[in-house]
Structures are given as C-alpha cells and as structure tokens.
Design brief:
The protein has 169 residues and is an alpha/beta fold. The chain has 4 helices and 14 strands. Strands 1, 4, 5, 6, 7, 8, 9, 10, 13 and 14 form a 10-stranded mixed beta sheet that branches. A two-stranded antiparallel ribbon has the order 2-3. Strands 11-12 form a two-stranded antiparallel sheet. Strand 13 and strand 14 form a beta hairpin. The mean pLDDT is 96.
C-alpha cells in the first residue's frame, strides 16, 4: 500500500494516468532542482508565494501552521540571494510544514540537511535577502508553464515534483 511515507512520484503518475497531473520541469533557467532538506520525499497541499529577492512573506508564512502543507516559492529563479536559511527553516519545522520548494536559492545548507523538512531549490548562496515586506501570497503561479494554485496537491521525491488538483493518496 502506498502511503505518504513511501510514495514514489513515478508510481503516482502511472497509477493516475487518467488525471491531469502536471510535472514541474526538473530544470529551470538551466538549473536543476536539488534537495537541501532532511527529507527528499514530502507531500502536502500548496501554499503559494511570489517574491523577488525579498523573503518577508516566506518568513511570515513559515511561522504559521503548516500541517499537511508545502510552500511553493516563486523567487523568479533569482540567484542573487537566498529566500530561506536555517532560522526560517527551523520555524517551518516548528510549525509542522512538510516541505518548501523554492524557485531560487537557499543558504545554510549543512543545517538544512539535518532538519525534519523537505527542501528543493535551484541553488544555494551565502547572501541573505532583503526584507521590505514585498511579495504576494496565495496566488496562482506559473512556473515554467506549470500552473500551481493554492490547495493543489504537491508530491516531491528524488524523481521530481508533481502537482495534482486532488489528493493522490
């Protein structure tokens, strides 16, 4: 029996060929998603944020109840600064988030790897972001022609990231 702990995205796609499941491109702007968290497999309902080099909204959201949720951060693939580091990730763990997917960078990668949290991002950088309180939350995102809406179901593992309109498990 497939559960939240042992699912494989390949099998979920195969088992639900009749559904319109989207697959997030493994490469965005020439960068391949990498796993930075303590878990390579995680799933949950999407919470969305779009921000450019300002992690104010990321910090705010990850300090709220994240039980059964995955934060999708459209950082516009900027490599200039990190949108999450160890302190914000610690908050995510404290509030029960399943994972974070960042179209951009993270930092404090050694610490992230030890945390009870799934994290996929395009790259790492030591530079922190500025905080000006800018960013949009709970909006429709278009990431490399894949539409992610709040409350979509996100499944991520070492094979890739898939998005469905309904629960697959």
């Amino acid at each position: 029996m497939i559960t939240m702990q042992n699912f494989v995205t390949c099998d979920l796609l195969d088992d639900h060929e009749d559904l319109a499941i989207q697959v997030l491109s493994p490469v965005i702007n020439g960068l391949k998603f990498q796993s930075y968290g303590g878990h390579t497999r995680f799933a949950g309902q999407a919470v969305t944020v779009k921000c450019f080099e300002d992690n104010s909204r990321v910090k705010e959201l990850l300090a709220t109840d994240g039980t059964g949720k995955v934060l999708i951060v459209d950082g516009v693939a900027s490599l200039n600064c990190a949108l999450m580091g160890d302190m914000i990730a610690e908050s995510a763990v404290k509030f029960g988030w399943q994972g974070v997917i960042i179209i951009g960078c993270v930092r404090d990668v050694e610490q992230l790897a030890t945390m009870d949290l799934g994290v996929y991002a395009l790259a790492s950088t030591p530079r922190k972001s500025v905080r000006k309180g800018v960013g949009e939350t709970n909006i429709r995102l278009n990431i490399a022609n894949v539409i992610v809406e709040p409350n979509d179901y996100i499944y991520a593992d070492a094979n890739g990231i898939i998005i469905a309109k309904q629960a697959l498990l």
